Amino acid sequence: MAEHDTGGPAVAPGGRIALGVAYRGARYHGWQSQPDGRTVQDVLERALGQFAATPVSTLCAGRTDAGVHAFNQVVHFDAPVDRDEFSWVRGTNRYLPDDVAVQWCRLVDARFHARNSAHGRRYRFVILEAPVRPAIEAGACGWVFRPLDGDAMRAAATHLIGEHDFSSFRAAGCQALTPVKTMRSIGVERRGAYWRIEFDASAFLHHMVRNIVGCLVAVGSGRQRPEWMAEVLAARSRDAAAPTFPPDGLYFVGPYYDPAFAIPEHTPAMDWLV
């Protein structure tokens, strides 16, 4: 099912609304609406419709895959009713499941578009390095049992910075019009037993982050040299890269926009998973 398009100006009666939504993706078949109704977009639109007492269609900043979490997924819609910002947050959350919650609301200019107005997007991948699989944090982090070399992973990541054709990291079913994206930064750091890998890019292809993480882990564990990442990138073939890393531990940190739109870039959960 195609995502709803709430596109260009011509708004009324409650104006154009932007929301920041956080969710645990484990129970959902990704963001985008599906016939079975088990997606984040489906549960959000049902909750908005119950609160507004009329159907509400949304458009998001980035369509996350099944099992992927989000700190600050930004959506917009043209409100069919007039409500204050505080009411959209509390009223919608009343009808949402425990693992999905609206974090903030803004009345925005009719020119604002959650996807098209974004200057870039950020993702975070959290990986536990331990001889035993996670339990308390199961589903909330990735897992490796082999020691990882942070310097090697950072060296490999440098080959991906800049504007490139990322076809080697693109899923077969990716619907993006072009594989060319600009990777602005990749940060790799360890905190205790956990690795945190931060990505900032103009946009991402389907499975792009998970495929890059699979390659970084191959380098970090010593199975590949850091220079191998440049070879994978140059091949422009998915067959050249490592297997796709599981979605556990992948978080959509959120998009960022022109400051004039006053869209929040921080939610409380970001302080929990530091």
TrEMBL record:
It catalyses: uridine(38/39/40) in tRNA = pseudouridine(38/39/40) in tRNA. Substrate binds at Y123. InterPro entries: PsdUridine_synth_cat_dom_sf, PsdUridine_synth_TruA, PsdUridine_synth_TruA_a/b_dom, PsdUridine_synth_TruA_C, TruA/RsuA/RluB/E/F_N. Residues 22-112, 156-258 form the Pseudouridine synthase I TruA alpha/beta domain. Its EC number is 5.4.99.12. One of its GO terms (molecular function) is tRNA pseudouridine(38-40) synthase activity. It is an enzyme of class 5 (isomerase). The keyword tRNA processing applies. Keywords: Isomerase, tRNA processing. The active site is at D65 (nucleophile). It holds the Pfam family PseudoU_synth_1. One of its GO terms (biological process) is tRNA pseudouridine synthesis. Homodimer. Belongs to the tRNA pseudouridine synthase TruA family. Formation of pseudouridine at positions 38, 39 and 40 in the anticodon stem and loop of transfer RNAs. This is tRNA pseudouridine synthase A. The lineage of its organism: Bacteria, Pseudomonadati, Pseudomonadota, Betaproteobacteria, Burkholderiales. The gene is truA.
